[in-house]
């Protein structure tokens, strides 16, 4: 990897880490918030869902703006908005007797910021590095950073809430300021390609053409990414509630237990990102194997609903499987799209991941009203669907690497599922 880009990469990787902390820190605190505010399980799950729902709507707009005006021009204001959202939620919890509505409002503002921060990281990595090998490694580090945020979130969230239940909200702006300073001063914006900015009508036509030519594999990757996030946030929501309600495990200890499956995901993502390089065949099979492992592990949880230790072990296995999938999807979606449309397409992919985040907790809450068995079997069915489309909708072409001499370097021409 280019030595002069290491600080750029570290700064960019701070964005998904901090955005994940800002959202996932709440997972272990949700039962305490529900008790403190006297609200239902579905209402408390909306603190996750409303954040994601707003981001889903705005991510494509942020992607287009980043393609037109530059990545940093979108990322910096978005981080500011995310920090202000956390501040609103935290101060409302501190000052207002019935703060639920204002907490939701703060989460909406935080979701607006999230739309223009973490999703723009993928195209920015593609812009920063010239060699495709470096792009793959950079994406692996970013996905690892994202997962590391999920590992630290339950521990840090539980620790902060042990002092004040709303303290996780107030730490969000602190994290955002750190990331803003790193991106502002350490990330060198890539040079823009010469030429006038593409008009919106022409840009939309080019995006439509991309989906016409590459829609089969793009839709498959969108769906798999969304399912993976659905599984992560749905199972964590279940496990957080189960540990506290049934086993009386609270605070930092609960955070440590929740972090165990996520640590497996983090380690797997790191090594997958280093291994895949430009090998599209390997990416396809890692995606299929990972989703197949995920399916089996979640399905097995349905037989062991009364044994939390076994469920944690199986979720660790599912984390290893998911760690094979996510960096492969990131590489496919970033390296398979031309730089001019990369921000928009990767943002649509991020929207699908946010849909999974938004649906996970409330869907699991509703399914648990039927039974724990129904919840795990339904989730494993979604994983099986992901494995099927990974097998049949993603078809890398072995001759995909061609030379583009007009730009003075080799450029990836991906024909997947065509």
From TrEMBL:
It holds the Pfam family MFS_1. GO terms for molecular function: transmembrane transporter activity. One of its GO terms (cellular component) is plasma membrane. Keywords: Cell membrane, Membrane, Transmembrane, Transmembrane helix, Transport. Its main location: membrane. The chain crosses the membrane at residues 12-32, 44-62, 74-96, 108-126, 163-187, 217-239, 251-273, 285-305, 311-333, 345-368, 374-394. Residues 8-398 form the Major facilitator superfamily (MFS) profile domain. It is found in: Cell membrane. It is a multi-pass membrane protein. PANTHER family: CHLORAMPHENICOL EFFLUX PUMP RV0191, PURINE EFFLUX PUMP PBUE. Belongs to the major facilitator superfamily. TCR/Tet family. This is MFS transporter. It comes from Paenibacillus swuensis.
